[in-house]
Write a structure and sequence with these properties.
GO terms for molecular function: calcium ion binding. This is EF-hand domain-containing protein. By secondary structure, the protein is mainly alpha-helical. The protein is about 50% helix and about 0% strand. The protein has a single domain, classed as Orthogonal Bundle (Recoverin, domain 1), CATH 1.10.238.10.
Length: about 130
């Protein structure tokens, strides 16, 4: 859902995820894009992002992350220790790359690193 409860197109959803995907690279997004992401993730409209809202987002994009793991990342920037993120805490969550880490968590485990040369089938040209 968008800022006003409207259904999002896939392209709009991707635009909202840009700050999450590029977290840690402050030249890649601005406060407005982070604000749009914050408003979109705040499903109950209380101006905070809770672990269950991030858990729902992860499920929507096909990731399975435990609530405990999500809480661990929230705790890294939860300055008032209330267990949820206001906008400023969420901004730090994005800028420090914690949201990106959550999003990419299992991907790095799935990559197999090897020093062996890659075997390319003979019918594929490089």
């Amino acid at each position: 859902m968008g800022l006003y409860g409207e259904e999002l197109t896939f392209d709009k959803f991707c635009d909202i995820l840009i700050p999450v995907i590029t977290g840690g690279q402050t030249d890649r997004h601005d406060d407005y894009s982070i604000w749009l992401a914050f408003c979109s993730f705040d499903k109950n409209g209380d101006h905070y992002i809770q672990a269950d809202e991030l858990e729902t987002l992860m499920r929507i994009i096909g990731k399975s992350v435990s609530r405990e793991r999500i809480r661990y990342y929230i705790d890294q920037v939860d300055w008032d220790y209330n267990g949820k993120l206001d906008y400023n805490e969420f901004r730090e969550f994005i800028v420090r790359g914690y949201a990106r880490e959550l999003l990419m968590m299992d991907i790095t485990r799935e990559i197999v690193y090897s020093n062996e040369p890659m075997k390319i089938p003979p019918n594929i040209s490089v």
